[in-house]
Amino acid sequence: MLKSGKDFKKFLVLAGVIMVLMACGETNTDKNETPLVTSAPRLFSLNDVTLLNGPFKTACELNQETLLKYDVDRLLAPFLKEAGLTPKGSSYSNWNNGTTGGSLDGHVGGHYLSALAMTWSVTQDSRIKQKLDYMIEELRQCQNKNGNGYVGGVLQGMALWERIKNGDLSTLGSYWVPWYNLHKIYAGLRDAWIYAQNDQAKEMFLSLCDWGLTIIEKLTDEKMEEMLNTEFGGMNEVYADAYEITRDIKYLNAAKRFSHKWLLDSMANQIDNLNGSHANTQVPKVVGYSRVALLDKDDQFKKASDYFWDRVVNFRSVAFGGNSRNERFRDSLENYLYLEWVQGPETCNTYNMLKLTENLFMAKPQAKHADYYERALYNHILSTQNPQTGGYVYFTPLRPEHYRVYSTSDLDMWCCVGTGMENHAKYGAFIYANAGNALYVNLFVSSELNWGTKGAIITQTTNFPDEETSSIKVTVDSPTRFAMRIRYPWWVGQGGMQVNIGGKNYAAKAKPDSYIEIDRTWKNGDTVEIIMPMDIYVEHIENVNGVLAIMRGPILLCAETETESGLRIHGDGSRMGQEANGKQISLNNSPVIIGEPEEILEKLKAMQEQNDGTFKVPGLSSDGDVVLKPFFRLHDSRYMMYWMYMTEEEYTILSQGGDPSAELHNRTVDRVMPAEQQSEAEHNLQTSGYASTGMMNGEYYRMTREAAGWFQYRMSTEGRTDLTLLVRYWGNEVGARTFDINIDGTKLVTENTSGKWKKDEFVNVEYAIPANLLTGKTTITVRFVTSGSNYTGGIYGIRLLKPAE
């Protein structure tokens, strides 16, 4: 076992000890130098890399101050409460507080602990360290009080874990993803040791791991698979980490038991079964697969990790590197809905995809890993921090002229708040990597690397992406031999890259999407000058005609369209407050680009760079001139990310039509998405009898089929008495499909959907609600109830609508 946190910090990212020759796009060895044999790559510790002036340093410093705003006692309250100790503060509200199992108490506390540890490693800020040490001590008291190694904030968790231990999974679904929740404190304790060298945290982490073994040890493989159908975060990852810390095989075995076979087997056999699945349930599983693959050299886990990464990056990601719509992976034939829905890619997904990318790079370093990492880091992660408040973004809509919502530190405890706390603390993680005698330069970020084993300081100075150059200076006490491998990005054309030192361009024969190697003995002051032209190009969404995004190198360029003083830009503490549910601008009224892609590119080539880092494109859209800026700099406004483009004739037709999706959204007072966990929890789902969920044609439904069986939701009326109830059905139901819809116990209507429409498409039906069922109420309960052998059929969506304006 390793003796210190510092040692393990380097050991954890080593990811194996097998020596390999690294494949690079171009190798340049100076005369009389014998090529170096290098080891498997590893990332540097966060405290080895110092961010210099630039957007990442600014974001990291703002995040540091944002973390200090949180009240640690309030974050700790769920843990103390579950341990039977008296909390020193009241729990934060929103997702982090509840009165039943349907809450996520404690999850942000775990993320916060990780973020503190990372931030301490980067900044050495004593205020951060004080909060971290205090948090560990309070959690230690909770663990001691529990007496069995357990420490967690899962509400009424002890009773749940005992039932699971005995093979009873019947109540698992009534809790809000408890293993996912618990995974955050596992990771927080692990990170407190890795990044802050807190030995107490290491002991607590391993004790918690041992407690977890007692919960799953008697579960059959079938029971484990059933349990893993409920989101469980990266439990396989943390057990793999425990194995690397201790080399005790019991932890590796646990990591494999926590590896959901439904996904592992499919991915390993190159079968894409992702459509319809909850995206951020799947990505952490594969992060765990990649950790097992690094430690155990298990080919199945390696194949699964590689295939999943390819399917998500190359087939399910949009221009800024994010993925998913309404939190799920969708069939690419439905990608047109990206332009209609406001629940765009989730930040948590990209947070975990970057972790997966790091692991795959360490297994087999390829420029494609850094190319994706760069795109996602600049365009998604960096864009999700509000530059004034430090708040974090959950969904990033692609819908034209929509906007994002940022968290408020005292109100919002979304999952993307937790990962957001970490995102902006770890920008130095992937800029560099080393493989024995080789240094990888993966990202063009202004920074300083202290390469201790080589006695070298590597200083990279750049204003990228505002400028197309970077300079790398080597500082050594005496001449030192190593190979520097500089990425040739895919977005620089053949022959466009220059990597100059001593009058020689080492990139002269290199190809895009590779690494350029300079293998030489470095002297103090040697400097590499890099030139990387950033061409303008457009990207499309698969299977969506007439839509494009504008890119400059790896940077997504967007246009700010409108800032509304009444728009809810910041979270308000409501359960679904992460959604940008304000008015939608009709697609017919949003600016479009007139012309074909070739014509559009000609217009873009004529764009004029402004002094403020923006670009003016004369006459680009139907509204005239367009000012573009990097998306990561666009905040607190509506924006154009994806643009529709068309001919003059098509635009004339479009501008005369309506936009049903915007009209429906703008009439909506409240909305339930059946079978979507958060939406159903927000609306107090209750069921009786046989109730089930499923998916058909890309949409999820809930149904029931027993005599007097029912399910119901509590919906907000906003005090209105002029509402209608909209229910979404599939238009070709057959069989016994007669059921009642009740409002607060009073029958609204008896419906029979069997053979009613006879068409293979979804149908929205509106039912008028009598005013007397709404008068004096701010909420109503909508119940769907069957009789005899009838089914409700699939209920795909429920809305309360106000009259059209």
Word description of this protein:
- By secondary structure, the protein is of the alpha+beta class.
- Among the domains are: 220 residues, no CATH class; 134 residues, Sandwich (Jelly Rolls), CATH 2.60.120.260.
- It contains 21 helices and 33 strands.
- The strands form six sheets. Strands 14, 15, 16, 17, 18, 19, 20, 21 and 22 form a nine-stranded mixed β-sheet that branches. A seven-stranded antiparallel β-sheet has the order 3-6-7-8-13-10-11, with no helix packed on it.
- The longest helix has 21 residues.
- The protein is globular.
Strand proportion, as a percent range, falls in 15-25%
Helix content: 25-40%
Terminal-residue CA separation: 69 Å
Give Rg in angstroms: 27 Å
**Strands, total number:** 33
Low-confidence stretches: 1-26
Structural class: alpha+beta
Cα shape: globular
Number of helices: 21
For the report, how would you describe the main beta sheet?
9 strands, mixed
Mean pLDDT: 91
Short description:
The protein is an alpha+beta fold. The strands form 6 sheets. Strands 14, 15, 16, 17, 18, 19, 20, 21 and 22 form a 9-stranded mixed β-sheet that branches. It has a 7-stranded antiparallel β-sheet with strand order 3-6-7-8-13-10-11, with no helix packed on it. Residues 1-26 have low confidence and may be disordered.
Keywords:
805 residues; Jelly Rolls; nine-stranded mixed sheet; 22% strand; disordered N terminus
